[in-house]
Amino acid sequence: MSLMPILTLLPPALREPVARLPAELQKRAEELRIREGRPLEIVHSEGYAFVGPNGNPLGQAAGSCIPTREDCAKLLELLTRHSIYSYEEELKRGYITVEGGHRVGLAGRTVLEESRVKQIRDVSGFNIRIAREVTGCGRKVLPHIMDYGERNVHHTLIVSPPQHGKTTMIRDLARMISSGEWPEAGFAGGRKVGIVDERSEIAAGVRGVPRFDVGPRTDVMDGCPKSEGMIMMIRSMSPEVLVADEIGRPEDAYAIHEAVHAGIRVIATAHGSSLEDALRRPVLRELAEDRVFRRVVVLRKGPGGVSVESVSEIE
Amino acid sequence: MIKLIGAVCILFAGTMLGFYQSLQISSRPRQIRQTIQALQRLETEISYGYNPLPDALFTVAGTTAGPVGSLFAEAASGLKDGGTDSVRESWSNAVERCWGSTAMKRTEREAFLQLGSVLGISGREDQAKHLRLAASILQAEEEAAAEDNRRFGKMWRSLGMLAGALIVILMY
Question: pTM for this structure?
Fold first, then answer.
């Protein structure tokens, strides 16, 4: 996959050099970082490079393409479809998700109201994270989390540092569970899957319709806060498996308890470099003490792609 | 004989000129009113509908008739997905292309252009404020334009014919 889908989001001055990057580099690209007055940078699986005016990757900052203030203003306009007013909530949180599920992190000067962030003004730093669909990557994890007794999956927590493929993993797990691609026979078909996609990253919903393949029996609550979305799903959509990304707030724990007591299996992710690391966070520790999650999978990205570092079984 | 035909032509042309001027004067307040209504609709689209600006402009253009409608349609067409125009650029291009076919004047144009430089680039409340400001400027202009229409509308109609008649008299 090249960088084509994100090219239309870039202002002309940046579109040109990025489009001319070597195809092989475009395929490996993970992040495009745009900082006002500083060199244009591309982060790929093996490191980073600055981008020259002709799309030539450079090892040093000198001679690379420098985005101007106008470029940044225009980029923000194009990212928000000329409608900053409809992204107020996202600007408060510091990121927006654009068509295709690519998340764009924002940095700049914040505007405070009653000492809470109201908005980011003068956005001068953008991190465009390129979302990729890796069909089949769930095969590495699914065998570890199958519940043979109940013919379903266990409550599972997937832990990895940022950029190590958590979201890609649960997207593919949702697809496999939904379409019934079990690694072993005897599970008879897919399950009803509910995805609560707070940041539109898992399913890359456009006007509520998922753009990524998340399976035929999957419902997506798009752009909805996780806790509320999970409760809504439990009440109305009768899912058998609930999928949510990056849990960590107290109300998430409440929603997960609700789901568990309703007999719904939960697959969730959390940031952390190891199990111990993740369990240092109060909400996750509490969930672990209640023995909610039966499987904790730690992912690690190496040269050969994402792999399973460890699987803890909690009975 | 030829002189007579010429005289009729001049009389006719003078009358038409007068009617045209009077029409221009009477369509100005109407078009300003249409623009105000369009801006109010845009405010609703933005404040309550959270609609992205290109869609909101298309909706507004669809419900506004005549040259004012095409002004909004032109501004929206520059913002289609994959384009690179900013709102300010697309807006001023639309004004450049379509303003000539409206009967509105310089003051309205300034207010309209001013709006284009802030549209879409701030929060909801701020957008509503800017839209209301532009509408209130236009409101004041509309009153002046309506007054002009009352005073000069009829005058132009008779003035055109009378001017034609004067030329004819001078010719003979």
Answer: 0.78
